[in-house]
Design brief:
Structural class: mainly beta
Strand content: 35-45%
Helix content: 10-25%
Distance between the termini: 106 Å
Radius of gyration: 36 Å
Strand order of the largest sheet: 26-27-28-29-33
Shape: globular
Length: 544
C-alpha cells in the first residue's frame, strides 16, 4: 500500500495531457460581461465627458466674471440737499420707487418758469410761471422726470393702487390730471366743475365700471351740502351722477371695510361720525357692491346714514390697525381718545387726555404686533407732552415733556426695525436744566427706541419753515431716511421768487452725530458710546 500523498495541485505545473486540468480559453466575441477593448473605449468616453464638463463650467464662470457685466447697484449718499428757485410753496411730498431700482425716490412740486431738466412752461404751451411736478432719485437727488402743469396747484396725491393704477392725481387750475408716477406722462386729464371744490384725500374704491382698474371717489365739502363724485381710474370719466353725502359740511372722511367686506364711506361732521354704504352712492356700478347686515340694521331710514359715534367734540378720525383685514377706528375728541371696534362699533378702550395738538401717528413700542398710538398734547406753560399709548389697552407706555415751539413742527412718525419695534422720530426742544434764553423757534429732532427708553438721541434741526416732512425705509433691509422740504416762510411769499430746499438724511448717520440725552429717570450704566453703538446695530424693516 502506497502511503505517499500527492503534492498540492497548485505546486505542479499544468500540463496539457489527458486527465490534467485545462486552462479556460478566453471568452469569444460577444461573450462575458465586458471585453477588454470595450472597457478601454468606455474609459476614454468618460475621460472626454469629464474634461468637456470642466471646460463648460470654466467657460460659464469666466463669462459671468469678466464678460457679462453684473448689475450696477445704485450708491446712496448718506445725506444730500437740492435747492430750487420757486414762486410758491406746496405741501406735497411723496416717497415711491419710480425708476424701479429698488431704492425709493422722492416726488415734490415747485412753481417756476423752468424746471430742473431745462423743461419750460412753453414746452407745454402754458403761461409762465407754471407748476412742475418732479421726481428725483432717492440715492443722490438727481432729477428723473418733471411735468409742467397749469398753475395753481391745489393738491396732489400719489400711489393710488400702485399695482393696478400707478398714478399721481393732481388738482390744479380747474383740472384733474392723472400722471404715471414712473415717468410723469399724462394718463388722462379732465376739467373740474367750478361748482365743486374737491379736498384730499382721494379714495381708491373697487372697480365700479368693470374695466379692470380701481376707481376713485372725490369729496367736495360745502357748508350747505357735501357731494361725492366717482371717476373711472382708467379714463377719468365721471361714473354716474353726483351723490349727496350729507346736507351739511363734512369735516373729514375715510373709506372703511367691514367684516363682511362691505365698503362704507365714514365722514365726520359737527355732530359726530357717520357712515354711508358705497352701494347707495355708486348706484350705477357694474360691480356688485354689498351692505353689511349688522350695519344695515343700524342705518337710519330717513338719512341712509349709520351712526358710528355721536359727539360734537370729535377732532380726528383715523384708521388704527393698518394691515389687518378689519381695521379699528381711533377717535380724538376734546375730552379724550377712544378706540372703537371696526365691526361692532363698541368701545375697545378710552383714555382722558388734554388737548391733542396734531393727528395721531402710529408705531410699535412693544412686540405684540398691534400698532401703538403716538400723540402730542398740550401740557400748558408753553410745553407739550409726547405720549405713546398701548394699542391694545390705551395704557401709557412712554411719555416726555418738551418745550412747545412758537412755530409749527411736523407731527411724530416712526420707522420699523427687524426686532418688531420702531424708532420713533419727533420734533421739539428738551427743557434745559438752566434758565435758557434760546428762542422757542429753535427745533431739534429726537429719536427713541424702546430698547433705550430712558434716553433720547438729539440732533440739531432747522430754523427754516418746514413745508413737509416724511420718514421711510428707502431700501429694503438697508437704510431708513427722512426727507424735508423747507423754505419760503409760512406765507409762501407768492409772487416773489424765493427757493425751496429738498434734503434727505440717513437715520444711521444722524444717530452717529447725535447727542445722547438722558431722561431724569435714567438709572442705566451704559455709556454714551454703548448707546450709539446699540442704535447703530438696529436693522430697519418695511412697514407691515
Amino acid at each position: 500500500m502506497d502511503n505517499s500523498t500527492d503534492p498540492a495541485p497548485e505546486a505542479q505545473p499544468l500540463k496539457g495531457g489527458e486527465g490534467e486540468a485545462e486552462v479556460e480559453a478566453p471568452p469569444k466575441k460577444g461573450q462575458g460581461c465586458l471585453s477588454r477593448t470595450g472597457f478601454s473605449s468606455l474609459s476614454r468616453w468618460r475621460t472626454a465627458a469629464f474634461f468637456l464638463s470642466l471646460f463648460l463650467c470654466l467657460t460659464i464662470v469666466f463669462a459671468f466674471s469678466f464678460i457679462i457685466p453684473c448689475p450696477v447697484r445704485p450708491v446712496s449718499l448718506r445725506t444730500w440737499e437740492k435747492t430750487v428757485p420757486s414762486f410758491a410753496q406746496y405741501d406735497f411730498l411723496d416717497i415711491l420707487d419710480t425708476n424701479k431700482d429698488k431704492v425709493k425716490d422722492i416726488l415734490f412740486a415747485f412753481k417756476n418758469s423752468m424746471g430742473n431738466l431745462n423743461t419750460t412752461c412753453a414746452n407745454q404751451s402754458l403761461p409762465s410761471p407754471c407748476v412742475f411736478l418732479t421726481a428725483v432719485t432717492g440715492t443722490n437727488g438727481d432729477p428723473l422726470w418733471e411735468r409742467p402743469l397749469a398753475a395753481e396747484l391745489d393738491w396732489a396725491q400719489c400711489g393710488l393702487e400702485e399695482q393696478q393704477m400707478p398714478v399721481c392725481l393732481v388738482s390744479h387750475s380747474n383740472l384733474l390730471t392723472a400722471l404715471y408716477f414712473q415717468n410723469g406722462t399724462v394718463r388722462w386729464q379732465v376739467p373740474r366743475s367750478p361748482e365743486l371744490s374737491f379736498k384730499p384725500p382721494v379714495l381708491s374704491v373697487p372697480d365700479l365700471d368693470d374695466d379692470g382698474v380701481s376707481d376713485l371717489a372725490l369729496v367736495s365739502p360745502a357748508q350747505d351740502e357735501t357731494k361725492v363724485v366717482l371717476l373711472s381710474g382708467k379714463t377719468g370719466k365721471q361714473l354716474g351722477s353726483e351723490a349727496v353725502l350729507d346736507q351739511s359740511l363734512v369735516l373729514g372722511y375715510l373709506l372703511h371695510r367691514t367684516k363682511a367686506s362691505a365698503h362704507y364711506l365714514l365722514f365726520r361732521k359737527e355732530s359726530g361720525v357717520y357712515g354711508r354704504a358705497l352701494k347707495t352712492i355708486a348706484t350705477t356700478a357694474k360691480t356688485k357692491l354689498t351692505e353689511d347686515p349688522e350695519w344695515k340694521k343700524k342705518t337710519n331710514a330717513s338719512t341712509g346714514n349709520v351712526p358710528v359715534y355721536i359727539s360734537s367734540s370729535v377732532q380726528y378720525l383715523v384708521k388704527a390697525t393698518k394691515g389687518r383685514s378689519l381695521e379699528n377706528l381711533l377717535l380724538v375728541t376734546t375730552e379724550g381718545m377712544e378706540m372703537i371696534d371696526g365691526q361692532s362699533l363698541e368701545t375697545v378702550w378710552k383714555v382722558d387726555t388734554s388737548t391733542v395738538l396734531s393727528e395721531p401717528s402710529f408705531g410699535h413700542y412693544n412686540k405684540d404686533g398691534v400698532y401703538d398710538v403716538v400723540i402730542e398734547r398740550d401740557s400748558g406753560n408753553n410745553t407739550k407732552k409726547i405720549t405713546i399709548l398701548d394699542g391694545l389697552s390705551g395704557a401709557v407706555l412712554w411719555d416726555v415733556k418738551m418745550a412747545s415751539q412758537s412755530r409749527s413742527s411736523p407731527r411724530p412718525t416712526s420707522v420699523n426695525t427687524l426686532d418688531h419695534r420702531s424708532v420713533f422720530i419727533f420734533w421739539g426742544k428738551f427743557p434745559s436744566d438752566t434758565n435758557s434764553t434760546d428762542s422757542l423757534s429753535e427745533r431739534f429732532l429726537y429719536m427713541l427706541h424702546p430698547s433705550y427708553s430712558k434716553v433720547l438721541l438729539e440732533k440739531s434741526g432747522t430754523d427754516d419753515h418746514i413745508i413737509a416732512f416724511k420718514a421711510a425705509l428707502f431700501e429694503k433691509g438697508r437704510h431708513a431716511c427722512y426727507v424735508m422740504l423747507t423754505g419760503l416762510g409760512p406765507a409762501g411769499d407768492t409772487g416773489v421768487e424765493g427757493q425751496v430746499t429738498l434734503s434727505k438724511h440717513r437715520l444711521k448717520e444722524d444717530m452717529k452725530n447725535s447727542t445722547v440725552l438722558r431722561l431724569p429717570d435714567d438709572t442705566g450704566s451704559d455709556s454714551d458710546q454703548d448707546i450709539k453703538e446699540g442704535f447703530d446695530r438696529l436693522r430697519f424693516d418695511k412697514d407691515t
